[in-house]
Specification:
The structure is a single chain. The protein is α+β, with helices and mostly antiparallel strands and 168 residues long. The protein has a single domain, classed as Pnp Oxidase, Chain A. 20% of the residues lie in helices and 43% in strands. Strand 2 and strand 3 form a beta hairpin. It is globular and about 45 Å long. Bound molecules: flavin mononucleotide. Flavin mononucleotide binds next to strand 3, strand 5 and helix 2.
Length: 168
C-alpha cells in the first residue's frame, strides 16, 4: 500500500471540470469487511453550508449506492491516466455480480475506517450531509428527462463535507 499524507485544499492543484468529467474519479464506500467502488464522471467540488463539499450523483441501480447509504461516508479517489482501463472496467461491471475490485487488480486502503482506492494520487474523504433523490418534476429543462432517464434509473445527489484530503 502507498503512504498518504493529509494535505489542505490549497496544496492540491485540481481543476474540477477537467478532473471529474474528463479524467474521472472512483467513488468508494463500505467498511473494513466489504467495500465497493464505481467510476463517476458527474459531480463537483464547492462550498455549501459553510463547508468544503463534493457532490456526486449516483443512480438507484448502483451497488455502491447501498454502501454510501449504509455508512454515510465515502471517498473520491483520483488515479492517474495509467488507470484509465481499470476505471472503464469499474464503471461497466457491477460489484453486485462479481468481485470487480480483485479482477481489476486495484487495492482498497483505509483512512479512519473509510475505504479508498490506493492507486489514487489524491483522495477526498467525504461525510454525507444531504441525499436528494432527483425527480422528473424537478427538471426546469424538460429535455433532461428524455435524454438521460429513459430507463427511469434516477440519480440521488449526495452533498458531502470533504473532511480530509490525502495525497501520496
Ligand atoms: C466514465 C464513466 C462515468 C460514470 N459516471 C457515473 C456517475 O456519475 N454516476 C453513476 O451513477 N454512474 C456512473 N457510471 C456508471 C457506473 O460506474 C457503473 O454503472 C458501475 O458499473 C456501477 O458499479 P456498482 O454497481 O458496482 O456500484 C459511470 C461509468 C463510466 C464508465
Amino acid at each position: 500500500m502507498h503512504t498518504f499524507q493529509k494535505v489542505t485544499s490549497d496544496m492540491i492543484d485540481i481543476n474540477p471540470f477537467e478532473k471529474i468529467s474528463k479524467d474521472w474519479m472512483l467513488v468508494t464506500a463500505g467498511n473494513e469487511e466489504k467495500a465497493n467502488t464505481m467510476t463517476a464522471s458527474w459531480g463537483g467540488l464547492g462550498t455549501m453550508w459553510g463547508k468544503d463539499v463534493a457532490y456526486v450523483v449516483i443512480r438507484e441501480s448502483r451497488f455502491t449506492k447501498e454502501f454510501i447509504d449504509r455508512e454515510g461516508k465515502f471517498s473520491l479517489s483520483f488515479p492517474s491516466e495509467k488507470y484509465r482501463k481499470h476505471m472503464k472496467f469499474l464503471g461497466t461491471v457491477s460489484g453486485r455480480n462479481e468481485n470487480k475490485i480483485e479482477e481489476a487488480g486495484i487495492d482498497i486502503n483505509y483512512h479512519e475506517g473509510v475505504p479508498f482506492i490506493d492507486q489514487g494520487d489524491v483522495i477526498m474523504i467525504c461525510r454525507v450531509m444531504s441525499a436528494t433523490q432527483i425527480k422528473p418534476e424537478d427538471f426546469v429543462d424538460k429535455d433532461i428527462d428524455n435524454t438521460w432517464y429513459k430507463d427511469k434509473d434516477y440519480h440521488t445527489m449526495y452533498i458531502a463535507e470533504v473532511t480530509d484530503i490525502l495525497a501520496r
